[in-house]
Fold:
Amino acid sequence: MRLLLLLLASVAVCPPAAAQAEVRVAFDLRGETGARTAGIADRTTGRPVTADDPVRIASISKLVVALGVMRMVEAGQLDLDRDVSELLGWRVRNPAFPEAPVTLRQLLSHRSGLIDPEEYRVPLGDRLAERVARPELWDAGHRPGAYFRYANIGFPVIASVMEKASGERFDRLMQRLVLAPLKLDACFNWSTCTDAKIARHVVLYRTTGEVALDDLRGERPDCPVIARAGCDLAIYRLGENGALFSPQGGLRASMRDLAVIGRMLLRNDGSFLSRKSIAELERVAWRFDGANGDTSNGFYCQYGLAVTALPTKRKGCADDLFGDERARVGHAGEAYGLRSGLWIDRAKGTGVAFFATATPPDSKGVTAFSREEERLAREE
Structure:
């Protein structure tokens, strides 16, 4: 009896197993060519994950933001090479190079000189300008445009510029510019998704079983932004804090939603963006030459405007995610235990969107990508 009680006690204190979910959607120019799902979207209800369930897609959000930027460029509202300070009304400057302007092109391609702080989320009521003015957030050794360093904090600056130029709050602007035209029930920080879509949310778990994010219990969150006290968005002044709706990683979308974006890029028929604009996004703005950037251990070696190009045949690069040396463009995501990817092979006219939750933080494949990303990318 004593042994049984000890066993029961040990079971009671063990953490719950992580609920891993995986979704992979393959597509071509005509439509979806295959879908595979596995695992649980919500451990509390036991609901199996589906290809239509929205998940926080992490940094693939940056590519989607870039689509919105290019829509505004085509409308004459933004200029990729204009000093962003002129629109914002507050200075975005590297203190070591105060005369050098910072542009949208540099921010989108991670060549602005900004360096991520430990915490790059900025609560409601705080001003992004005060965060960006800190000298420790800037690379003192390289002037803007000269060096690649992946920086999430640059995308709140981009979102602030978009707000000032449009007169619309970022989440609503992205709904109008990108999500609604593509007929996607997707949203930043759950703000513009339908209740039906929110009910299908994917909870993000860590490998320990701990909830990392989005345990919504099927309901819209009380506040879509980080707030120190209260959630009165009516007090927010446009352009003051583009971090509010997490432009760097806060898009909630399903893999079928991402496949729609991938097919739009593949078709490249001018119906959403001109061919010139898509070429501008995909054109390599930075390529590692051995000394001109931080590759994050070989993960980033070619980058456009919020678009990663793969693979790179150069010492120090380990970015052949698909293992076949074929050229692809897209973006990866990693946050809160999730790994995700949206990649297209323009030459073959094919693509894939995928995610896996509850992935080990130290997961490492044969490339700079994780084992989960390699497996989901290469699956036929």
